[in-house]
Amino acid sequence: xxxxIDLIGNTPLVEIKRLNPNPNVKIYGKLEGNNPGGSVKDxxxxxxxRSALERGDIKAGSxxxxxxxxxxxxxxxxxxxxxxxxxxxALPASSTKERVLAIEAFGAKVSLHDGMEKSRDxxxxxxxxxxxxxxxxxxxxxxxxxxxxxxxxxxxxDTDQQITHFVSAMGTTGTIMGCSxxxxxxxxxxxIVGCQPTExxxxxxxxxWPEAYLPKIFDPSMVDRVMDIAEEDAVNMTRxxxxxxxxxxxxxxxxxxxxxxKLAGELKEGVIVFICCDRGDRYLSTDLFG
Length: 290
Known about the structure:
The chain has a six-stranded mixed sheet with strand order 1-2-10-7-8-9. Strands 5-4-3-6 form a four-stranded parallel sheet, sandwiched between helices. By secondary structure, the chain is of the alpha/beta class. The mean pLDDT is 96. The protein contains eight helices and ten strands. Its EC number is 2.5.1.47.
């Protein structure tokens, strides 16, 4: 009989056919919304909490705090309750209602702040002054190692070792760093493509960080190419992905698919895998699908 934790990972790959402009290229989306917490962040949340417990950094009854744009918060709230940990999640005030309610459903506390940077400042200050343990996904080795240990090997296995290009949104950069580390080890020729918003675009889950807030786990040498994604393109591709491919996901997934489609148009042949970060029901209170 499986436990909830056993259900994290081993998410399916689904082929994108109608939106693929090149018959000589395969595009696959890795459906991370199939994780029990509904996003790719289940993997990092589990590895960060479990590793901290194993090292003795925290124990049952410890108080945790973390800044998050939403999906990591839901995942951490879910994992924390399983291990008997108290946790507060600091979110931008712009976070969707669904995210806040989902976090609170797991018994976690939510505080709202003016943007992601202010959320990070608040969490770090509370950890320093009030004794909370901060996981700090932006600088935590266990974040990207979750993907080195699971996501990367799954993609390699499920493409029959045929993957040529990996495409991922860049937020904390844990997913792209961990997958890059693994995929480059098994085949250095695999191209790693990161997505960031164009200047002025707002795409939940994809960030263009100010220099002072750039995640410490990010190593630019592990990304072969960075593609700028316009907000309009991410929105349009998210809607088309649902209506033409039946894949119901969030805007960062649409942004990653937009990059994958553009990339496919440039190639003679290849196998592209992009990360479909979460489920579309996280965004129903917004106008994303309006």
